[in-house]
Design a protein that fits this description.
Layout: E1 4-12, E2 15-24, E3 29-36, E4 39-43, H1 48-59, E5 66-71, H2 77-83, E6 88-95, H3 98-105, E7 121-125, H4 128-133, E8 141-146, H5 166-173, E9 176-186, H6 192-201, E10 204-214, E11 219-229
Parallel strand pairs: 5-6, 5-8, 6-7, 8-9
Antiparallel strand pairs: 1-2, 2-3, 3-4, 9-11, 10-11
Helix pairs in contact: 1-2, 5-6
Length: 233
């Protein structure tokens, strides 16, 4: 049994990214982890909240043919869960880091295998925040799901900060069709100030707390999924 294995590493504009696999004694399974510089970016240890980002966002969406944009590919759990909804006819996933996209095209992850080859999926290398800021999206989407930063007040890069202002959220709202849904993942408890920011940009907004078992602590852990709706006009 291999306890620890480095699968890939590459220099990126955001720093050195490393993909590794280790056998976790507590959960008795292989866990994939991604480290970006000194920051732990993502893990397959707990994925309930990443999946919930897709389900909560899509449950709030109206319509039978949905175009979905996911900002942040990661290990693919949000995007893969979105494809489980038969109403999704097009899924665009934007990630700034080329190695992350390559891992999925090479089908390195059993849990999300098939994401890259699904005919509904397009994997796009781009800076999601610049895409929003410059309003470069060619046509609006029905559902926008974002999982890039740790939380609105814990960003990976300082230039992401403007996305979490009223102006940034208004720009996100303009990416949506009338009545469209915006969802955001956070690793922190609900932030009432950020909910107020969202409500200044969207017709409605709320924070959902997602709870999941944590065998590492013997208890439970939580994450927050913010969901907002653009006005229908």
């Amino acid at each position: 049994m291999v306890r620890f294995e480095e699968l890939d590493w590459a220099e990126t504009p955001w720093g050195l990214i490393v993909l590794r696999r280790r056998f976790d004694l507590a959960t008795q399974r292989d866990v994939h982890e991604v480290k970006l510089g000194d920051d732990y970016l993502m893990s397959s240890q707990f994925t309930v909240s990443e999946r919930a980002l897709a389900t909560l966002g899509l449950d709030a969406a109206d319509g039978d043919e949905l175009r979905v944009l996911v900002g942040g590919l990661g290990l693919g759990y949000t995007a893969f869960e979105a494809l489980r909804d038969d109403r999704v006819t097009e899924l665009v996933v934007v990630d700034a880091l080329a190695p992350v996209i390559s891992w999925h095209r090479d089908e390195l992850f059993d849990d999300t295998r098939g994401l890259a080859t699904d005919p509904r999926t397009s994997l796009v290398q781009d800076d999601f925040f610049d895409l929003v800021r410059a309003e470069r999206l060619e046509r609006p989407v029905d559902v926008l799901l974002v999982d890039i930063d740790h939380a609105p007040d814990r960003v990976l890069r300082t230039d992401h900060g403007d996305f979490y202002t009223v102006e940034g959220q208004q720009a996100a709202a303009r990416m949506l069709t009338p009545g469209g849904i915006f969802g955001l993942w956070s690793d922190e408890p609900p932030d009432t100030e950020f909910v107020a920011v969202m409500r200044a940009a969207f017709a409605e907004a709320e924070a959902h707390v997602v709870t999941f078992d944590n065998p590492l602590t013997g208890g439970t852990s939580t994450a927050t999924i913010y969901v907002a709706r653009r006005d229908a006009a």
